[in-house]
């Protein structure tokens, strides 16, 4: 029997598209984590900001929790609806609303994908430089909700740097127009930045005005094989001082093993413990000389065991697939994901402690390291041993995460660098944020969402 609240919602917002079929509830009720069983009440697909406001007002009046939903490519359970929540999908709100050549901004509805945003910027001869592998599915609203980072943070920064303004429907159902694209605005608290990274707990982002960058330079990609993490840090310092780096990513032999098992082509004849993928501005004799000099410098010091430099766009894309294909290659193993960060200068010391900890705690597990080493962001994926049941695995990983969180605390790091806290890392928030900070966050939530209907249970349990 259909829940009577669905009829009531349809009556309150007649133009609203509502989905309640069993396969839709599963599809929209989960994200890429696959850890929580989806169980939403229904899926609401508004067509504009006014309808979003009407849905939120209805939900507040009826005490129904809302889970804002973009591409659901998140890796922390932030978009999971497992407790009868109404999923509010922005899927029908994907339009580009305007481009301003003087301001160099693009205004979009929040449901647009990252890839469509990048294309729209490209059509204007400019670029939206935030980038990562989920670009074809993830939405700008979701990127804003998690302050998404990705593969070009080293050069361009996180999503936060590119949001010139946003519109938010609060838990009251009010529509806030925050910062309106201004470059300079010293008129009090910047509420826009409060919303960025708030994981849908303060409201629903419905629109964003994004800054655009100059089109990226011509680039080449270098894949290097390295004997140790120490040499990786030396190579990073060297390349950063000699080249104009666009990205500096790393992965281990285990990560490469899984990508190759998925059909990718091996880059080198021999296996090496670590690999670095560096993308850098190329073209012109001076740059070519600098690249070769940097390569030679690293090789003669024994920091690099082997290396290859792309000679075409196709080759560059092929090399990138070795890094970008890691998440997909691990997905069938339902990995437990860590997404941690420390200051880049603290990386070697943190890594030594973390490696010792994980080797001790997970001696029999396949632990895969990779990430955005130039940003101090490491992804550590732990694969479930075939003979271990899912609950026992989750419990074991939970215990180890508590130890890892303590190690991070010692090194002043964060339990989530770019994926968000969501449900997955909620129990460890206190390793990264002080009790005073968490109390302030809860207080801010009460102001913007007094009924506690916006993505409840994500980041923290509001009192
Ligand atoms: C990536 O950088 O590929 C993703 O953020 C990481 C992951 O799958 O853990
Ligand atoms: Zn990442």
From TrEMBL:
<dbReference type="InterPro" id="IPR036318">
    <property type="entry name" value="FAD-bd_PCMH-like_sf"/>
</dbReference>
<dbReference type="Pfam" id="PF02913">
    <property type="entry name" value="FAD-oxidase_C"/>
</dbReference>
<dbReference type="InterPro" id="IPR006094">
    <property type="entry name" value="Oxid_FAD_bind_N"/>
</dbReference>
<dbReference type="Pfam" id="PF01565">
    <property type="entry name" value="FAD_binding_4"/>
</dbReference>
<dbReference type="InterPro" id="IPR016164">
    <property type="entry name" value="FAD-linked_Oxase-like_C"/>
</dbReference>
<dbReference type="InterPro" id="IPR016169">
    <property type="entry name" value="FAD-bd_PCMH_sub2"/>
</dbReference>
<dbReference type="InterPro" id="IPR016171">
    <property type="entry name" value="Vanillyl_alc_oxidase_C-sub2"/>
</dbReference>
<keyword id="KW-0285">Flavoprotein</keyword>
<dbReference type="InterPro" id="IPR051264">
    <property type="entry name" value="FAD-oxidored/transferase_4"/>
</dbReference>
<keyword id="KW-0560">Oxidoreductase</keyword>
<comment type="similarity">
    <text>Belongs to the FAD-binding oxidoreductase/transferase type 4 family.</text>
</comment>
<feature type="domain" description="FAD-binding PCMH-type">
    <location>
        <begin position="36"/>
        <end position="215"/>
    </location>
</feature>
<dbReference type="InterPro" id="IPR016166">
    <property type="entry name" value="FAD-bd_PCMH"/>
</dbReference>
<protein>
    <submittedName>
        <fullName>FAD-binding oxidoreductase</fullName>
    </submittedName>
</protein>
<keyword id="KW-0274">FAD</keyword>
<dbReference type="InterPro" id="IPR004113">
    <property type="entry name" value="FAD-bd_oxidored_4_C"/>
</dbReference>
């Amino acid at each position: 029997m259909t829940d009577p609240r669905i009829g009531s919602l349809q009556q309150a917002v007649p133009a609203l598209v509502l989905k309640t079929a069993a396969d839709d509830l599963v599809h929209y009720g989960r994200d890429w984590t696959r850890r929580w069983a989806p169980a939403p009440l229904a899926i609401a697909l508004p067509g504009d900001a006014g309808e979003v406001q009407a849905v939120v007002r209805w939900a507040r009046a009826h005490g129904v929790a809302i889970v804002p939903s973009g591409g659901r490519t998140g890796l922390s359970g932030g978009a999971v609806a497992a407790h009868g929540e109404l999923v509010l999908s922005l899927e029908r709100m994907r339009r580009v609303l305007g481009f301003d050549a003087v301001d160099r901004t693009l205004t979009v509805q929040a449901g647009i994908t990252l890839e469509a945003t990048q294309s729209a910027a490209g059509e204007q001869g400019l670029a939206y430089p935030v980038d990562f592998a989920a670009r074809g599915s993830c939405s700008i609203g979701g990127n804003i909700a998690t302050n998404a980072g990705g593969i070009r943070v080293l050069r361009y920064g996180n999503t936060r740097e590119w949001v010139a303004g946003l519109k938010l429907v609060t838990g009251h159902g009010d529509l806030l127009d925050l910062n309106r694209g201004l470059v300079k605005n010293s008129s009090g608290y910047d509420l826009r930045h409060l919303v960025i990274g708030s994981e849908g707990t303060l409201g629903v982002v419905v629109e964003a005005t994004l800054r655009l960058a100059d089109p990226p330079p011509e680039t080449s990609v270098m894949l290097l094989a390295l004997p140790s993490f120490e040499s990786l840090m030396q190579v990073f310092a060297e390349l950063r001082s000699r080249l104009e780096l666009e990205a500096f990513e790393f992965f281990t032999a285990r990560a490469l093993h899984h990508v190759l098992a998925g059909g990718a082509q091996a880059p080198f004849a021999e296996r090496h413990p670590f690999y670095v993928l560096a993308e850098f501005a190329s073209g012109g004799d001076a740059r070519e000389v600098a690249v070769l000099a940097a390569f030679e410098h690293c090789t003669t010091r024994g920091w690099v065991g082997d290396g290859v430099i792309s000679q075409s766009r196709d080759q560059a894309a092929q090399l990138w697939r070795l890094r970008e294909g890691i998440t997909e290659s691990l997905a069938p193993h339902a990995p437990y994901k860590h997404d941690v960060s420390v200051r880049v200068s603290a990386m070697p010391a943190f890594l030594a402690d973390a490696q010792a900890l994980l080797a001790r705690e997970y001696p029999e597990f396949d632990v895969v390291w990779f990430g955005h080493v130039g940003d101090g962001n490491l992804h550590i994926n732990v694969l479930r041993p075939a003979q271990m049941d899912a609950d026992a695995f989750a419990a074991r990983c939970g215990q180890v995460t508590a130890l890892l969180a303590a190690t991070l605390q010692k090194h002043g790091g964060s339990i989530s660098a770019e994926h968000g806290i969501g449900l997955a890392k909620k129990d460890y928030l206190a390793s990264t944020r002080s009790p005073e900070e968490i109390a302030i966050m809860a207080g801010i939530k009460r102001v913007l969402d007094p009924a506690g209907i916006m993505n409840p249970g994500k980041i923290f349990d509001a009192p």
